[in-house]
From TrEMBL, chain A:
UniProt xrefs under PROSITE patterns: HELICASE_ATP_BIND_1, HELICASE_CTER
Segments crossing the lipid bilayer: none
Keywords: ATP-binding, DNA-binding, Helicase, Hydrolase, Nucleotide-binding
Organism: Fictibacillus barbaricus
UniProt protein name: DEAD/DEAH box helicase
Domain of life per record: Bacteria
GO molecular function: helicase activity
Automatic annotation (TrEMBL), chain B:
PANTHER family according to UniProt: DNA UTILIZATION PROTEIN YHGH
SUPFAM superfamilies: PRTase-like
CDD domains membership: PRTases_typeI (cd06223)
Ranges for domain Phosphoribosyltransferase: 145-235
InterPro entries per record: ComF/GntX_DNA_util-trans, PRTase-like, PRTase_dom
Listed name of the protein: ComF family protein
Residues in the signal sequence: none
Record-stated family: Belongs to the ComF/GntX family.
């Protein structure tokens, strides 16, 4: 679709080409329109409430809105909707209006059937959420806000540990103010419960809250828990393929990627696993967080392994921080053991595994305990799995990020149908399985950073009935990151005793 | 250093003597992604070009697969499609790659296959009209581009847009084989029949699944006077 610009009632305005019957006007892609002021709000206009509920606080493509262009444009003319350029030209290249991408290599152009341009540029960075191109406007709601119901009682009778309680109190005190706070909690501290009281207060004040996390698995785990404890609140979960994206919700649980769809929506933003790839890595995601919040907002960061930059900010008192060094069951974190296992790469090429690792696998199979084996890459994953399969006769499987049945496999592992699960770093966070041992194969590989190793070690000993899971790093020479990770864990345990 | 068109990871090219002589033809994907693609090679069905190594022996008769024999035995379809050649096996990874350019609209990703397509084209057929399988008006608007046309442009700068798809039907990928074979009316029309008369035609599409789309297109072209129709697809 192209747009035309025209004078209407002495004002320069714009309209989709087929809504104006004037062959004298030249239709152009949206990004080539002259600048126009959006029409003023016409308070006597009767707006569509379902459109308000879907679009309020969002930034969406025409294709994402189940309304006719006639309806949408009528709302624009009455000042209830604003159009914004999808991909705009900058001094040095392009800028994506949705994800903020400015990297040249992440733009491409094609001969577009919609705007008839031979070189319609689109953003490849956020393509998974629908194509934003030079001819697609992004729509936002400029009409009245959605009013939330006052019923938002927390229905939860669990108890917080002393560490959780301190963090929870700090959060509650800050609700309604501007600022930011880091909750630094060990893996298994029970971060979700820490949020309950603060969220309740915010919801009762009529504020809108979002919990953003890098992983879909975590959204799927959190949403039902929150729905259970806030039974009267409108809650929606956002992830690729979610069906709740059109619901008006005061509390949103979203993957960080889905935040691209929001604009000035949240008063309180909880960013889970703030250090996790890809959040800390990808600057466009930071852009998404800053655009998804209202101008006055409170940011709460959760992490078990804050980045060095963040720790420094805490040390210099630029960022306030609460630590929860103890797991909710009160036991210390299992300290990883390092086992030298020779040139594992070369052995693998010959189709063999290092002897210490083989011995461990055999014992593990005999003991009947579940184990997760982390490996550095997908190609290593397949080889290792095959060799182990030929060695022991227990149910074994492997998962990686692109695995279409990842969710099912993790479920099977949880249910005990798989005893040994080989995984890339994709399962380093969020997966909680009781009675579990953990091994890292090739722990000296550079994908295993300090935070990845701490997270991986945090998988073990999660249940109070089995607080001492085994954690072993199989390596060919200690890496700095391995040493740092072990130091990190020991320090957290020490802090707990003090 | 280059960036993988699919996963955006940076990578350095594998270097070997064949590169030096310009003999190796690679996709514009990183090595990890390219390794998951399976080239169609070894024994293939002489008609549809599927790899025999991937399915049980009992589905094969001579140098043809059972599906092609079924087509050829039906007198309406005997000899309609001379041959099809495909680059890759339609495995889970390629399904995702195709979904990404076709349904998510990442048109640039198609270019990753240009070098390999060109090479394959040189092997099988020259001096043919290159005609991409068209989309219906509605579908073309929805996607913003026709993936088959973009693939065809990778083969040659001279492509002929001589086919049109009449009606907006349900997506082929949502139909079963029987449903695809049953459809009676041919969805394609030849725009300028005089141009194809006595010509060889090479059809281009993204996936050969049952072969019915390509055969319907071949049929209208032969009816319009084309001499011979073969096809090339990215996946089989």
């Amino acid at each position: 679709m192209r747009f035309v610009s025209l004078f209407l009632n002495n004002r320069l305005t714009i309209a989709p080409e087929h809504l104006v019957d004037d062959p004298g006007l030249k239709p152009v892609p949206f990004s080539e329109l002259p600048f126009t002021k959006p029409p003023p709000l016409n308070t006597s206009f009767v707006f569509d409430e379902s459109l308000q509920q879907i679009l309020h606080g969002k930034l969406l493509l025409l294709d994402e809105l189940p309304f006719s262009i006639e309806t949408l444009h009528e709302h624009y003319e009455n000042g209830f909707i604003d159009y914004q350029v999808g991909v705009s030209r900058t001094k040095y290249g392009h800028n994506c209006g949705r994800c903020g991408n400015e990297k040249d290599r992440l733009f491409a152009s094609f001969s577009c059937y919609r705007c008839k341009s031979e070189t319609c540029t689109y953003c490849r960075n956020c393509i998974m959420m629908g194509r934003v191109s030079q001819c697609t406007p992004l729509l936002s709601w400029t009409g009245p806000k959605v009013q939330w119901s006052g019923e938002n009682k927390l229905e939860w009778d669990g108890k917080l540990s002393s560490g959780q309680n301190v963090a929870s109190q700090r959060f509650v005190e800050q609700v309604g103010l501007d600022g930011e706070l880091l909750i630094w909690a060990v893996c298994g501290a029970g971060k979700t419960e820490v949020l309950f009281k603060g969220i309740e207060k915010a919801l009762q004040l009529g504020l809108r809250v979002c919990i953003a996390t890098p992983r879909t698995d975590v959204v799927l785990e959190l949403a039902p828990r929150l729905k259970k404890v806030f039974p009267h609140t409108m809650i929606a979960s956002y992830y690729g393929g979610s069906e709740e994206r059109e619901l008006p919700a005061q509390l949103v649980i979203s993957t960080t990627h889905q935040l691209y769809r929001f604009k000035q929506a949240f008063n309180i933003m909880v960013v889970d696993e703030v250090d996790a790839f890809p959040y800390s890595y990808d600057t466009t995601l930071q852009h998404a967080v800053s655009r998804a919040v209202t101008p006055d907002h409170f940011l709460l960061y959760l992490s078990a392994t804050p980045s060095r930059l963040m720790k420094k900010a805490v040390k210099n008192r630029k960022l306030s921080c609460v630590k929860i060094p103890r797991r909710f069951h009160g036991y210390p974190l299992p300290v990883p053991k390092m086992v030298w296992s020779g040139e594992w790469k070369k052995r693998l090429e010959r189709g063999e595994l290092p002897t210490p690792f083989v011995n461990w696998i055999r014992e593990q199979a005999k003991s009947g305990r579940r184990a997760m084996i982390f490996v550095p890459s997908v190609s290593i994953l397949k080889k290792v799995t095959e060799i182990i399969r030929g060695m022991v006769e227990v149910p074994i499987d492997c998962v990686h990020a692109e695995d279409p049945i990842r969710k099912e496999k993790v479920e099977q592992f949880r249910a005990g149908e798989i005893q040994l699960l080989v995984s890339t770093t994709i399962l380093e966070r969020g997966v909680t399985v009781p009675f579990l041992d953990v091994a890292v194969f090739g722990a000296d590989h550079n994908v295993f950073s300090e935070s990845a190793l701490v997270q991986i070690s945090g998988r073990a000993g999660r249940s109070k009935d089995d607080p001492n899971g085994q954690v072993i790093y199989f390596h060919y020479g200690k890496s700095l990151e391995m040493v740092r990770a072990i130091k990190h864990i020991k320090e957290m345990n020490k802090e707990d005793n003090s | 250093m280059s960036y993988c068109l699919y996963c955006h990871q940076s990578y350095t090219e594998r270097w070997s003597w064949t590169d030096l002589f310009g003999l190796s033809i690679r996709t514009l994907l990183c090595l990890d992604c390219e390794d998951i693609l399976e080239l169609v090679k070894g024994d293939i069905c002489s008609i549809c070009g599927r790899s025999f190594s991937l399915f049980p022996e009992q589905y094969r008769q001579g140098d043809c697969c059972n599906d092609c024999i079924r087509w050829e035995e039906n007198e309406d379809w005997t000899g309609i499609l001379q041959q099809n050649r495909s680059l890759y096996v339609y495995n889970d990874f390629l399904k995702e790659v195709i979904a990404k350019f076709k349904y998510r609209g990442n048109a640039e990703l198609i270019k990753a296959f240009y070098p390999v397509l060109k090479k394959q084209y040189k092997k099988i057929s020259q001096q043919a009209f290159i005609i991409p399988i068209p989309l219906s008006e509605e579908r073309n608007y929805e996607r913003g581009f026709n993936q088959a046309e973009l693939l065809a442009r990778g083969i040659s700068n001279h492509i002929a847009l001589l086919l049109e798809r009449k009606t907006h039907e349900e997506k082929q990928s949502k139909k079963t084989r029987d449903e695809r074979l049953e459809q009676k009316e041919n969805p394609f029309i030849v725009i300028e029949p005089n141009k194809v008369q006595g010509q060889k035609v090479l059809l281009v599409d993204d996936v050969y699944t049952t072969g019915s789309t390509l055969r319907y297109a071949a049929k209208v072209l032969l009816e319009a006077g084309a001499k011979q129709v073969s096809s090339i697809t990215l996946a089989r």
